[in-house]
Write a structure and sequence with these properties.
With about 675 residues, this protein is of the alpha/beta class. About 35% of the residues lie in helices and about 10% in strands. A nine-stranded mixed β-sheet has the order 3-1-4-5-8-9-12-11-10, with helices on both faces. Strands 20, 21, 22 and 23 form a four-stranded mixed β-sheet that branches. A two-stranded antiparallel sheet has the order 2-13.
């Protein structure tokens, strides 16, 4: 067997080599084809192959022409279209709406291999290539845009992706169950319209078609859209009340609340939303995979590497190749996270045997270096966790199982994951198993043995964690535990590391700037917290309003959709920049901006050489050089401001902390 034959076909020549005149399904993706179970097209393609269907992968086609679509021929059953593992706009643009310099899912990290709003562009090309072939859209981008949504990059409310893509169906959420049923029913001769009864799909009714009687009607696209000529949310005073908001903002918040209360597949009701004279219908989500189904999916014959046709390294492959997925879903309900909208709140876990089998196969691979980069998923320590009362779970509409406090019905035992960690590191040729997925710290604290196991065996010098903020009001809007929760976890991790003979292990905390609710005052409190605890974050995560997230609704409307209370929002680029530099107050080049922010906030007491001060009262040389460079770029001569000449003292000369919290 040639190397190419070990992979799914990507070209007409590869189809001919396999004797496939007409593939049953063509999967179109905005990502490079990596045959690894961390990538949706590999999972879906391998699953269909195991069921006896023939599959071709159309990876990163040149969307400027229809020819790449025609080159593979007409699929017998349907086109499956996805933008890739990420929303294409998040993949292409930063939080400041600037083009990214690197695409982790493309060969060589090259940009420009996928279009903006890739799902709708690809779907339209499918229609152009072969009229009459069903087009099924899926993946993260389609899931997050299945209804009217705020689009950060255009600063507008956009209609459901069904409107512009003209796809026959959108499969939202994880696609294994829906794609199997779609293939079976289309192969049996059913028309694609008959598939509208499936869970986990959304569709657009014709103008004369009737809305199903059991649908919950959302505010229409027209009701949630701003008046003509108004872009985005208005700038509002912090003491505004709900009566001062535009009707469309109130309707958008109401729609968001309704959508997020209909995500439990055990009790969710179908939703409908009028778009002009047509209606989008979203059925209840599909049930998550059971353990045996998960084992089947992850036990398929993946090659765990990119297709041989690629000559350049693919960054995502380098990052994920030696990782192992143990679970899906997250019941945390963080308002800025899209996992709930796509994977759902229910945890689906693979069996221990399935995971160990994959690890043993990795250990036998001559190219494997012995280091497992991650054993996790959306989180590292929700493995095998679930509600202990199925009857309650069947009717529960709670948005988070752990906020504002951990539900007393939630099974939080870490024993299954501890057992898995212990057995994983005993496998031949496995030298080390790191845990790189996020740790849910409020859960970890409930099981001290887990923290001990983690610190002793699964941390490679430092552990990345995501407390996200130090202001409890902002954390509450995020649906994250309070800052004290992180403090306790940090103490317990430090003690566990010392007990394991690894006192130099340290935490690398991640924080978000400009999240709704985070004001300059809140960021100053975060800066003080960072200084007091010796943290110096070298990277700042700017809040990106992803479609349909609760925090995105806050950003757009200025309202918490769950409580209808006003939320302060940093919308202007300048305001977002202020929050970013406050988090990195310790960088000399940020001195001028930090000083201006502190003065504006009435916190001159934090300027000077006192123990509590964030910056000195005179600019360090690096700050002056940075300002001079900015002036030169703008074409101006730089002149020192009066009283701000460089000093001979070093920056923060009395600072006695370290760049990180050790131990």
């Amino acid at each position: 067997m040639s190397e190419n034959h070990k992979f799914l076909a990507m070209t007409r020549a590869e189809l001919d080599e396999r004797g496939i005149e007409q593939p049953d399904v063509i999967l179109v993706t905005g990502d490079a084809y990596i045959d690894h179970p961390s990538f949706a097209m590999a999972i879906l393609g391998r699953l269909l192959e195991s069921l006896g269907y023939t599959v071709a992968i159309l990876s990163q086609p040149d969307w400027r022409s229809v020819e790449p679509w025609r080159a593979l021929g007409k699929p017998k059953l349907f086109y499956g279209v996805s933008a890739g593992n990420m929303d294409s706009m998040i993949n292409l643009y930063t939080a400041n709406r600037k083009p990214r310099s690197k695409d982790a899912y493309s060969p060589g990290g090259k940009m420009g291999l996928r279009p903006e709003r890739a799902t709708q562009v690809y779907a339209q090309r499918c229609r152009e290539a072969f009229a009459g072939v069903p087009v099924i859209a899926g993946g993260v981008e389609a899931s997050l845009r299945r209804l009217a949504h705020y689009d950060y990059w255009s600063d507008t409310v956009r209609p459901s992706i069904l409107v512009h893509s003209k796809a026959d169906l959108v499969v939202f959420g994880m696609g294994e169950k829906p794609i199997e049923e779609i293939c079976r029913r289309l192969a049996a001769g059913e028309p694609v319209k008959n598939l509208r009864d499936m869970p986990g799909v959304a569709y657009l009714l014709g103008a004369s078609e009737q809305v199903p009687a059991n649908c919950i009607e959302l505010p229409s696209f027209e009701e949630v859209s701003p008046p003509a000529g108004v872009l985005g949310g208005a700038i509002r005073p912090e003491d505004a009340d709900a009566e001062k908001y535009r009707p469309d903002q109130l309707a958008f918040a109401r729609a968001t609340r309704m959508i997020h209360h209909e995500l439990n597949p055990r009790n969710a009701r179908p939703l409908s939303q009028r778009h002009g004279n047509r209606v989008v219908v979203v059925n209840a989500p599909t049930m998550p995979l059971e353990q045996a189904e998960m084992d089947k999916v992850y036990g398929l014959p993946y090659q765990r590497k990119p297709h041989p046709s690629y000559t350049e390294k693919i960054p995502a492959d380098e990052m994920i190749r030696d990782s192992v997925t143990i679970m899906r879903g997250c019941f945390g309900g963080c308002t800025f996270c899209s996992i709930t909208m796509h994977q759902g709140r229910t945890i689906s876990s693979r069996s221990e045997g399935s995971i160990l089998t994959e690890l043993k196969a990795m250990g036998k691979d001559p190219n494997f270096k012995g280091h497992v980069s991650d054993l996790g998923g959306p989180t590292a320590n929700m493995y095998e966790m679930k509600c202990t009362q199925p009857k309650v779970e069947a009717v529960c509409r709670r948005l988070s199982c752990v906020h504002p406090k951990v539900c007393k019905l939630l099974g939080t035992s870490h024993k299954p994951v501890i057992s898995l960690m212990q057995k994983a590191r005993e496998i031949p040729n496995i030298k080390r198993v790191n845990i790189a997925s996020g740790i849910r710290m409020d859960l970890a604290r409930l099981e001290p043995e887990y923290i001990k196991e983690l610190a002793a065996h699964h941390v490679g010098g430092h552990l990345k964690v995501a407390p996200e903020h130090a202001d409890n009001e902002t954390l509450n809007l995020m649906k994250k535990p309070g800052v004290e929760d992180f403090n306790v976890f940090a103490k317990e991790f430090r003690e566990a590391s010392k007990a394991a003979g690894k006192p130099k292990q340290y935490l690398v905390p991640y924080y978000i700037a400009s999240h709704p609710g985070s004001t300059p005052a809140a960021m100053i409190e975060l800066a003080l917290y960072l200084k007091q605890n010796g943290y110096r974050p070298q990277q700042v995560q700017d809040f990106i309003p992803a479609p349909m997230d609760i925090a995105t609704c806050m950003y757009y409307t200025g309202l918490d959709p769950i409580t209808s209370k006003p939320v302060p929002v940093a919308r202007r680029i300048r305001d977002r920049q202020v929050q970013r530099v406050l988090m990195q107050f310790f960088k000399p080049e940020n001195w001028f901006e930090v000083r201006a922010a502190l003065i504006q906030a009435g916190r001159k007491d934090l300027i000077g050489f006192g123990k509590h001060c964030l910056i000195p009262d005179k600019p360090p040389l690096e700050a002056l050089q940075a300002r001079r460079g900015e002036a030169q770029k703008a074409g101006h001569d730089y002149v020192h401001a009066k009283g701000l000449h460089p000093q001979t003292v070093s920056y923060r000369p009395k600072f006695q902390g370290t760049q990180r919290l050790t131990g």
